[in-house]
Structures are given as structure tokens and as C-alpha cells.
Amino acid sequence: MKTYDSEDIIIYWKPNNCKHAAECVKGLPSVFNTQKRPWVSPQNATDEKIMEVIDLCPSRALTYEQK
Ligand code: SF4
């Protein structure tokens, strides 16, 4: 599992659960960009928007926890 820190949330990503449905990449390309390393850049959007898009992840590969 990988973690990405933002101001108010911690983002968790479980690569083995990722079904590459791309809801995250389509929903918020400024934050979720598979061409970049790290591929998650939480500083590029508000935590509210990030949580909204993470909630669309069909496999729960992406989750978050509020600090
Ligand atoms: S929405 Fe979830 S399953 Fe789809 S690519 Fe993103 S992390 Fe993977």
C-alpha cells in the first residue's frame, strides 16, 4: 500500500486492487496522472474535490482518511 499526504487527508492506494477503471484519472487529472511519479499530486486540488473523486473508485484501491 502507498500513501500520499495532503493537508487534511491521507490518501491510500493499493496497487493490487486497482482495476484501471480510470475514474480517478478522468475525474481529476491534475491530481491523478499515471504518467507522473509519484502519480498522485494532492497539492493540485482541494481535499474536498479529491475525496469526491476517490469515492468514485470502483475497486476501493483508492481510499482516504481525514487527519
Ligand atoms: S479509479 Fe480506482 S480502480 Fe480506477 S484507476 Fe483509479 S485507483 Fe484504479
The global form is globular
At CATH level 2, the architecture is 2-Layer Sandwich
CATH domain fold name: Alpha-Beta Plaits
Oligomer: single chain
Question: How many strands, what sense, and barrel or not for the largest sheet?
Answer: 3 strands, antiparallel
Q: Order of strands in the sheet with the most strands?
A: 1-2-3
Provide the low-confidence segments as ranges.
none
In total, the number of strands is 3
Q: How would you state the average pLDDT, rounded?
A: 97
Strand content: 15-25%
User: In sequence order, what are the helices and strands, one letter per element?
Assistant: EEHHE
Helix vs. strand class: alpha+beta
Provide a concise account of the structure shown:
With 67 residues, the chain is of the alpha+beta class. It has helices at residues 23-27, 47-54; strands at 2-5, 9-13, 62-66. InterPro entries: Divergent_4Fe-4S_mono-cluster (IPR010693).
Structural descriptors:
alpha+beta; three-stranded antiparallel β-sheet; 67 residues; 3 strands; (4Fe-4S)-binding protein; Alpha-Beta Plaits
Description:
The protein is an alpha+beta fold. It has one domain (2-66): 2-Layer Sandwich (Alpha-Beta Plaits). Helix content is 19%, strand content 21%. It is built from two helices and three strands. Strands 1-2-3 form a three-stranded antiparallel β-sheet, covered by helices on one side. The chain starts with a strand and ends with a strand. The relative contact order is 0.31. Bound molecules: iron/sulfur cluster. The site of iron/sulfur cluster has 12 residues, from helix 1.
